[in-house]
Amino acid sequence: METYITQVMELLSLGKTSDGVNQITVAVSQEDRQAIYEINIDEFTYLGLEVLKPLNGDRIRLSPYSKWDPYRNTFYSSIIRTTEVSRDVQYFACSEAYINEIKRIRNLPPVPVEDRVEGPAQQRTQLLRQFSAHMPKILILSLVTIGLLIVLSITSKGNDDSANTFSGSVGVAMAGEKDDDFEAPMVLTAISEPYKTETSVTAARTNPIVLSHVSDQPDSNHESFEVIDIDKEESFFGLPKEYVALTFDDGPSTLTKQFVDILTEEKVAATFLFVGQKVERNQDAVIYASEHGMAIGNHSWDHSLLPKDTPQDQSESLSKTNSVLESLTHKTVTLFRPPYGAVNNKLVSEVKKLNMKTLLWNRDPEDWNAKKPEDIIRYFHQVEAAGGVYVLHENKNTLEALPAILKHLKEKNLKFVIFK
């Protein structure tokens, strides 16, 4: 069975060919394999990327994921800009044609690095970008080396051991240069106007979650499940390998009760993250989910991108949503999932002030973009389920796929969990 393998996509160039065709060059890496592709893109996506001025010497990672924003009726993706001192996320609007091209190259098997042949122009571009990115380190290392030589020349007085001392010092300096940029790609989704986060965190990071409390919660509806109390100091996480969690965003809806019925019939619990504006139109669905043992969380008032808002507006969005949820469930809401998975330090601070915890994810079937239920089911069979926190949405294809999803996960003998 094919398992989930992290791919890193790096943007190498953005420009127009001699024929005026918009084009990007992308390097796709996974483990020790890499391939480079030239992709033609439409004018709409090209302009969205160009305004970010991505190729100014920084290292630019291209998100392999894009999302549909139903509130603005368009697709968005993102770049991750890495410098010596920061890591910023910027968003751009893109077309469905661009999304399909990215999906296509994601599904192509990378060739071994040693077999890859780059053209002279690509080689020059890559060398220049690498040299530019590492220039500050080279200068610092050079200065340190010169300083060491001066000191050693004064103190060694011909002592042959100075060569060993110098060698050891350089070894330490070089160890400090380890490049840790190639970690799991960030799963980011977006809005129309590009913006920078002070500290962006996303759902793709898979560090194990810090469990403050885990308890068995069997009841008349569920065979057994566990409730995990998230450590509110942790903003992103993955579950331990023996666990799995299903979470459902963007409800409540007319489908909520059907989702709950399937879960209850299979003696499984899940976590539902509700949008405040939708709660007012589907109050019975919220009550139904809560009464059947599902965890209920806050997904903002209007599904807007909260890092762009002031702290006061962020707090108002969360508080207003909590108020309508708690009036129906008579339970304190402690979970928050940021729309699009976008958070920054200010938002995390506001969440903590409200005694809430940020719940993200590390598995994304992109069910919002599935053409049929089988597309979603296929994802579950292709990724490693253990430790997965799956983000799903309340739509018809996901509902139809849910029985098969539960059957597959149960066969893995994993413990289903909900969060609080």
Report the structural category: alpha/beta
Radius of gyration: 24 Å
Strand content range: 15-25%
How can the largest sheet be summarized?
Answer: 7 strands, mixed
Provide the helix percentage. Answer: 25-40%
Shape: globular
Which residues sit in consecutive blocks of at least 5 with pLDDT less than 50? 1-6, 112-135, 154-210, 215-222
Quickly count the helices.
11
Give the SSE order as H and E letters: EEEHEEEEHHHEEEHEHHEHEHEHEHE
Number of strands: 16
Q: Tell me the span between the first and last alpha carbons.
A: 33 Å
What's the mean pLDDT score?
Answer: 75
Short synopsis of the structure:
The chain has 420 residues and is α/β, with parallel strands linked by helices.
Structure characterization notes:
There is one protein chain. The protein is an alpha/beta fold. Strands 8, 9, 10, 11, 12, 15 and 16 form a 7-stranded mixed β-sheet that branches. The protein contains 11 helices and 16 strands. It has helices spanning about 45-50, 95-105, 120-155, 160-175, 255-265, 275-280, 285-290, 310-330, 345-355, 375-380, 395-410; strands spanning about 10-15, 20-30, 35-40, 60, 65-70, 75-80, 85-95, 210-215, 225-230, 245-250, 270-275, 295-300, 335, 355-360, 390-395, 415-420. It is globular and about 65 Å long. Mean pLDDT is about 75; it is low at about 1-5, about 110-135, about 155-210 and about 215-220. The two termini are about 35 Å apart.
